[in-house]
Batch of 3 targets.
Target 1
Amino acid sequence: MKISENWNINNLTMRKAKIDDIKDLNSICTSWEDKILLEGDVFPKGYIENCINNGDLPPIKGADISNYYLMIIQKTDGEIIGFFDLYHGYPNNETTWISIFLIDKAVQGNSYGKEVVESICQECKNSGWKSIGLGVHLKNWKGLRFWTSNGFDRIIGVWGDKEYSETTFSIIGLKKELL
C-alpha cells in the first residue's frame, strides 16, 4: 500500500520533495512565526534536509525511509505554498501518520489546507489505508480547529507534560477513519 509520489487536484499538485526544494521549504518553515510559542521550540537546524535525506521516522522498531514521504504542495504556476509528510504504517499497519502539515502564512485562509487534506484522505483511501493519524500540540488552537473540522475527531492519546504552564507542552493524537 503506497501512495502516489505525484497527484493533482484543481490548481494544486502534490509531489515528493527534492533537494532543489529545500530553500522554499525552509522559507515556509520560517513563516510559522508562533511555532515556539505553540510547540516550545523552533525547527531543528537542517530539519528539511534531514526529512528529504533520512525521513522524519516514527519511534518504532524497523521504521524505514521507504515508508516516508515528504510532499510538496505546489500551485500550477510553480509556487510552492506548503508541505506535509506521511509515514505508512504508524501507529499500526492500517494507518498513515502525518507528522507535519504546513501552509505558507502568506496564502493561509484560501482553503488550500482543507482541499489538500481532502486529497490526502482520498489518495490514502485509494491506496488501501484504513485511517490517518496525527498529533497536534494542545496549545495550537488553530491547528486543533483545523484538524477536527476536517474529520480528525477520534482521540487516540495525549502525551507530554503533566502540568500546564508557559513552558510545558502536550500533544493530542487524532485519527480519521477512511470509510
Target 2
Amino acid sequence: MSSRRSRGPKIKKENSERWLLTYSDLITLLLAFFIIMYSIASLNQGKFQQLAESLHDALSGSSNPITFSSEGANKSLLQNTSLTVAQQDQIAAIIKENHLFSDIYRELEQYISAHHLQASVQAVDEPKGIRIAIHSDVLFDNGSDQLRPQALEILQGVVPFLNKVTTSIQVNGYTDSVPIRTQQFPSNWYLSTDRAAGVVSYLITRGVNPTRLSAQGFSKYRPIATNATAAGRQSNRRVDIVLLHSWY
C-alpha cells in the first residue's frame, strides 16, 4: 500500500516566540510608568498633568526647556529601564522640581499661618507653579503705587521662599473696576502695572535676581470676585507673585 505525499508548497513554520519581544517592551514601559508614579505619589493632580505633558515631550523627542539638576535617587530609579540617558535626566528633573515646589508650598502655608497673615496673603498651588496672592490694600494706600511700611515686612518674609529655586518669577498687578484718572495714573492700566513694578523693585533690593523677575499689569480685566460689592472689589485689588516651574 503506497502513501501519498503532498506536492504543494511547503508552509514555513511561524515563529511562535515573536510575542515575547513585544511583551518585553510592554513590561519595560510599565516598569518605567510605575517608577514614575511611585516617585510622584505626593504630588497633586495639577502637577501630575504638567508631568504627563513634559514626559510626552521627553519621550517623543521634541524640545523641552527643562534644565534642572537630575542628581539624586529619582534618577537612579530610572536607570534600569530602556529609556535613554537624556530621557532619564528629563524625567528625574521633572520629579525633583515638583517635589521641591511641593515643599516650598507647604513651608509657605506654615509661614502664613504662623504669622497670622491668612486675611491678606494666600499661597495657591497651581500647575504652572506657586502663586502668592497679596491684597493690594495691605501693600498700597488707595490710588497709590508706593509700598506701605506694613507691605515691606510681608514682602521681606516672602523673599527666602523665592530664592529657594532659580526659576522665573512673575509679579502681576490687578485693580477693581472703579476708574482712576489722575496725572500719574491716566487709567487702571497704569496703576496695576506701576504697582507690580514697585513690588519687583523692592524684591530686587532684597536680593532676588532681577533676571528672574517680570512685572505685568492687568487693570480691571481679570477679576476673581464681583465688582458689585465692596468685599468683591477688595478681593480684585491684588498683587500676585508667581514662582514658575522651569518649563514655563
Target 3
Amino acid sequence: MIELEDVSDLVNPVVIAAFEGWNDAADAASDVIDHLIDVWGARTVGAIDPEDFYDFQMNRPVVSTGLDGHRSLTWPGTQIAIASPPDLDRDVILVRGLEPNMRWRQFCAEILAACDDLGGELVITLGALLSDTPHTRPIPVTGTATEPDLVDRLRLEHSTYEGPTGILGVFQDACTRLDIPAVSYWAAVPHYVAQPPCPKATLALIGQLEELLEVTIPLGDLPDESQAWERGVDELASEEEEIADYVRALEETRDTAELPEASGEAIAREFERYLKRRQAD
C-alpha cells in the first residue's frame, strides 16, 4: 500500500498518468507529466515501493553526486504528485513512473487506491506509439474512453484494438472494473525518428488535455523545441535520399486521406484553443 503524505481535501481532482516504456514512444507521454509537474508546481505526496514491482537488472538504480559532493542512489519507481493549477477549478493528481516488470494487477490496484484516497474522480492516461506518420504534419492523437457519455461528450471512440497491451491497457481495464471513468490519449510518433525527445508529440497530447480540462496550459519552451526538432528531422531527411522519398510518400498518403484533424470541426477547436491562449498571454 502506498503511504501518502497528509494532504488537505482536494477539489474534484482529476488523475493524469503516464509510464515510461512500451507505452511511451520517444518519451512523449511521460514528458507531458514532467512538464505539468514543472509548470503547475506539483509536489510529490507518495511513491510505490519499487521492490515489489521492478526487476532491478532491467531497470537499474542510478548513482549520482550532488553539488555538496554527497553520493545518492535513486531507485526506479512510480510517484504520485498533486497540483492546484491557477486557471483550473479542480486539483490534479499526477502519476509518473516506469511500466512495472511484474505484478501488474497489484500495481494498478495500489495506484488507483491511492488516487481514490485523494478523491480522484476521473483518470486520464497518456501514451505514445510509433507510427508511419510524417514529421512534417500535425501529430495524430487518438482518444478512447470507458463510458458512453465520455465518448459522446469528448467526441472519442470505443477502443477496437485487439492484441498485446502495456500497463496503460491494464490500468484502463482496472478503471473499468472499478467503475472509474477513464480517458486515454495516444500520440503517433514518426517511427523513423523514434529517439527521444519528441516535443511535437508532447505538445499534441497537451492540446488534448487543454480541450478536455478546458484550461490553457503554459507551454514554456515546448513550441520552440518542437520547431527545432522538426528542422533537425528535415536536415536528416535531406541528407538521406531514401528517407526523403519515404517522407514524401507518407505526406502524400496523409494529405489524401480523410483525416479527423483536417475536418472543419477539428480546425475550429484548434482555433478556439489558439484564441484562449492569446487571451491568457
